[in-house]
Write the structure tokens for this entry.
Amino acid sequence: MSQLALVIDLNVCVGCHACVTSCKEWNTSGLAGYLSDKRPYDKDPTGTFFNRVQSFEIGQFPKTEMVHFPKSCLHCEEPPCVPVCPTGASYKREEDGIVLVDYDKCIGCKYCSWACPYGARELDEHQKVMKKCTLCVDRIYDQSIVEDERKPSCVLSCPTSARLFGDVHDPDSDVSEKIREQGGYQLMPEWGTKPANHYLPRRKTSLTIHHDELVRADNPLKKEEQLPQPDFDDPSLDDVTSW
Amino acid sequence: MQNPTHKEDNEHIETKTTTCYMCACRCGIRVTLKNGEVKYIQGNPEHPLNKGVMCAKGASGIMKQYSPARLNKPLLRKKGAERGLNEFEEISWEKAFEIMEARLAKIRETDPKKFALFTGRDQMQALTGLFAKQFGTPNYAAHGGFCSVNMAAGMIYTIGGSFWEFGGPDLERARLFIMFGTAEDHHSNPLKIALSKYKRSGGRFISINPVRTGYSAVADEWVPIKPGTDGALLLALIHEIIELGLYDRDFLVQYTNAAELVDTDAESDQDGLFVRREEEAQEGKCFDPQDKLWWDRQTNKAVKTHTENIDPFLLGEFTMEDGKTVKPSFQLLVDRVKEYTPEWAESITGIPADTIKRLAHEMGITARDYQIELPIEWTDTWGKDHETVTGNPVAFHAMRGLAAHSNGFHTIRSLSILMTLLGTIDKPGGFRHKAPFPRPIPPCAKTPKGPEGVQPNTPLAGMALGWPADPDDLFVDDDGQPVRLDKAFSWEHPLSVHGLMHNAITNAWRGDPYKIDTMLIFMANMAWNSSMNTTEVREMLNDKDENGEFKIPFLIVCDAFQSEMVAYADLVLPDTTYLERHDVMSMLDRPISEFEGPVDSVRIPVLPPSGECKPFQEVVIELGSRLKLPAFVDKEGKRKYRDYPDFITNHETEPGSGIGFLAGWRGKSGEKFMTGEPNPQQWEMYEKNNCVYHYELPRSYQYMRNFNQGYLKWARRHRLTRFVEPITIHLYSEVLQKFKLAAQGKYGERRPPEHLRERVETYFDPLPFYYTPLETQLTDTQKYPLNALTQRPMAMYHSWDSQNAWLRQIHSHNYLYVNRKTALENGIANDDWIWVESMHGKVRCMCRHSEAVEPGTVWTWNAIGKARGSWGLSEQSNESQKGFLLNHLISEELPGDEHLSNSDPVTGQAGWYDVRVRIYKAEADEPEQTSPQFDFPKKIKGLGKVSQWLTYVAGKGGKS
């Protein structure tokens, strides 16, 4: 059984928010829409987003890291939001592991958002139903879209291709390989939720310089050496000795 | 959830391609419409610039299209109403054109310089510049003067090319990438694409920046630096690289003026000029003649440069046969940087000397020990064949962090020299040019030389903006006084190649150097974030003389949105959005070329204009035709072009030149490119080809283009340039020395006015030097110890996006970020309301503690704060109540009575980042509201309706 998921590479995410708004534009007019915005042009605007980027600093100056952390529903393999739903609106699909909400059944009781340890669900305050990332389920199977583009909107838009999409149950998939080889990790595994989405950590490249590399045989300064060159007529041994 | 493959029956879906304009990056986009409404904007995978990706702004284009801040009708200020209050009446376009035609025709037939056209967009200069020139006014510029002209001038006067549209770092092959002071970039998505590929391929990325945000976040190493001191760091890096012999000597000898001999006789009027072989003197041509000399080590004599089998000295002092003492210019550079040790730089930059040395070692070792050799044959301009192209894989990038200081020109010269020493110019893994660059140093365009170039009913006798090669190219009168309103190309800022838009309003208000009549502002928010000294500029815009007349008599503003500037207009012209217009990214302007060859592109409307909006392009064509400007009418004075698309198809730079705004599909049936007869089907051909034309140069023309015979001849054949002479890199700038000599009374006829003599002599130094930024020199730094900066967030483009319901949720107000230690020393807790005060003014805002900023710097996001009542936002919006603008603390002029611009003395680049401030906690009884506050202007009639809920669904009238 497959489990679709996102693998997010924190090594290259620059926090540009392309994923945030491209998600919003696709989904507000998509089957999981709309995504309402309250007070859109007024004080404290607040709207429904399936995906947000949190940015935070780690460490003390000058050893500071700035981490941009995109977060959306992690499509857990043991989703705590599903069993708590009193109406069965929250469910996990057998065929691909996507966790969805059936708006027709949702009564907006928020049990699921309390149960979610990741804060990934948002109650749409206008429609009064719970909404969340669907992995663009209305894109990824749509035969009218060219195959290359049957991916979540956030994945298509990401300029640093920090968002990888695929089946984490398939050991040969690109996402599985990345998780395996680049230290992919899950958020808060101790909760036993088995999030399908993974994150790839920052990786640092450094350059070691050996001292002898700085003492160079090809030092171009050597070409500029100008030893004193006396005039031809200056006194010389030839003037005074005859061996 | 419902069946995900379900489709409604009644929907009409269509997809069109065009070019984004949510920022200056200009990505290719595909727009999907449902029942005529925008459903989805995605990156076009077939576009060479963005290859399918998008950014936050681009993906929010829907909310720009349907923003309630959009202007819908031409507006005329009500008779007797003050400016700034939005007291308008709606008028017809015909009335608007009649008003403009009558006013402008009168100005043109009397004194054309009394019309000033300034535009926030410097990527539409081909058209706006043509209009200004045809009108005959010298008073035209785009926003480069207050953006990043130091970057353009500093690099182009050194290597013949620059960053952004003109060139960039080749991250495909670099091993070490050093980025100075860049948060976000013009070339936004391409840089992100390249950076992630680069990191994944194991490249090392070092960020040198007072603040760690944006791209710096993913750097392998962050080197915090004090603002405005990058010049000191760069000079110390140059010092260390020379000291250890880590420079590329072969590159310096062959391709730069390092070995060329300079006259060093301080008494001579040739002091500091290259010694020339007179028999090859070529006057009046815009290239660097090959008439200089090297010192031959074998014969111990001066010889012609590039003499075969000669290896000249780069160091030493020599005596010519006529007794003249000369030095290779590299020796002068070595003499200059002698004192600039890493230890010296440590005290200025705050970077430990050991770190500076290590950075120099990393650059030098990577350049020399990781050399790339590509099997690409090419021939240099001296006829020598090369079997390979080599690369030293160290790449750099920089933007306003270096540029927006009054010492930025020399800082950027230093960077260009460092890049040259490492041998990285137009080579794999280093810096690479983009067509139509490289240009001769300096480029050929020139302004008129004096006031006689401005005549009634006559086009300007030159370009409004140019590239002076010596003092004779200045645009001044017989007394050395400026001809231009902004004083560009005068002795105050001789190389102000992008103008000084930041002084245009103050100068017009003061009538210095003269009064004007009408100012037309296109897409520039001069009453807010585009002006320094915002509060006073707003007063100037509304100020009247003793007769009760406005000091700036008539203001025309063209904008798509209700910006702060719109309120000050006498006449408002409602522009369209980018989705509603034809437009071109032209080779005559700043195209979107790639390293591999020229690229230009177009916008084709995907939606009809809303309301009565009219694209500014159409306004320009209409006005040009009505005013009978020669380029827009035929010999009988009849209108030549039906509309803008017709103009683009048929306009040639001169009759029969074959050069037009678009380079692709020229010739009668589209069989030619770059040059060729107009093609009536050209727009259709762009439309069929993703709105983009991309010509990929043969591989042998893709590198070493300053000296690549094949490329330069190709460029001449296709009329990108007139000359095929090598574009020798100016390690030593003789252009600058000529200005210095003029100030010393030794060069040419023209002399700076006495009060500027010392200034010109000091700052026009042929070699870079470090000095404290001008305003800092005049500031009590005990009282104002902190540097204050802005950065551009990736999700907002200047002021454009506060009306965007989605983007404003990402940044609805801004904080002042202060190093935690600095804040605590000042008794300021996280989220406290504080005052930030400079010697020019103060602002109340909220403070955020940060560990990602060096302790001597405070910073905030640029242009998030808004004036109350603008951009279609409510009176209580966060942007106006909590958001703030740092511009209130920054002056457009230096302290003193001389009214000198607060700018780089060489280029006129606005010194935004030179301001010094102090911070202190606001009193407990003060309101928790940003200060200053401005009156809430009237709502403009006819703007979109705003409700408390937005539930956008495409295809249903925008409603759920």
Chain A touches chain B through 86 residues (CB under 8 Å). Chain A has a mean pLDDT of 95. The domain at 4-200 of chain A is CATH 3.30.70.20 (Alpha-Beta Plaits).
